[in-house]
Design a protein that fits this description.
0% strand; single chain; Four Helix Bundle (Hemerythrin (Met), subunit A); mainly alpha
Length: 218
């Protein structure tokens, strides 16, 4: 119960952060700080679930759903603010629908989970890319840095309008260029961690809906 409440809470907090980002410089600095809290809560719900012995497969899937919603909230807003390419949220949303649909089918039909001992991932390579601590940590760090730096750029823009200059215009431009590189690294990692799910989940796509001869090729 409590882990799921944390997940729901971080979704509403993310929505609140987006509202705060529409305000002035100091409000946007506060929004950046709250963004860090939103990301931290993603790890807190799992910790609480283990601590209270409330961990479950359904809870893990709900946690992933919450993470997807938060990602999409931020990326769609940053796109609307002109900070990231239109294709960034498109890639994330498309990948999320495909991957999470396969995971849901695997769970409903065979009780397979995204991670853990009963994972739907079949080979050591795909398990490493999707579920290893290294893979999750690298992707998590790239997402934290990208979301926070994009928020800081929004704050600096508001600061210029209010006559507050923590950085020069040139420094903000350099920061923006660095952040764009980081955003596309995040996109690449998102795909690298998603494509193995599609590969190992192809059985669920071909098993029922395609001709028998095609299933044999899979």
């Amino acid at each position: 119960m409590y882990p799921n409440l944390i997940t729901i809470g971080r979704i509403f907090l993310a929505l609140g952060v987006i509202v705060i980002f529409s305000m002035g410089f100091w409000w946007r600095i506060a929004a950046v700080a709250l963004t860090i809290v939103v990301i931290y809560l993603d790890s807190l719900d799992g910790y609480v679930a283990r601590k209270l012995k409330q961990a479950s497969d359904v809870g893990a899937l709900f946690d992933i759903t919450g993470d997807r919603i938060v990602e999409h909230i931020y990326l769609i807003y940053y796109c609307a603010a002109g900070l990231v390419s239109f294709w960034v949220p498109i890639v994330f949303v498309t990948r999320s629908f495909l991957v999470d649909t396969l995971r849901s089918v695997a769970f409903s039909r065979e009780g397979k989970t995204p991670f853990g001992r009963n994972t739907m991932m079949k080979s050591p390579v795909t398990r490493f890319l999707t579920a290893s601590r290294v893979s999750r940590a690298v992707y998590g760090v790239s997402k934290i840095l990208a979301f926070v730096l994009l928020g800081m750029i929004l704050a600096f823009r508001a600061g210029f309008e209010q006559g507050i200059r923590w950085l020069s215009t040139e420094q903000v431009e350099h920061l923006s260029a660095f952040t764009q590189v980081l955003v596309w690294i995040m996109v690449a990692l998102n795909l690298i961690r998603g494509l193995p799910v599609l590969w190992d989940g192809k059985y669920y796509l071909f098993d029922k809906y395609l001709p028998r001869e095609l299933k044999k090729e899979v």
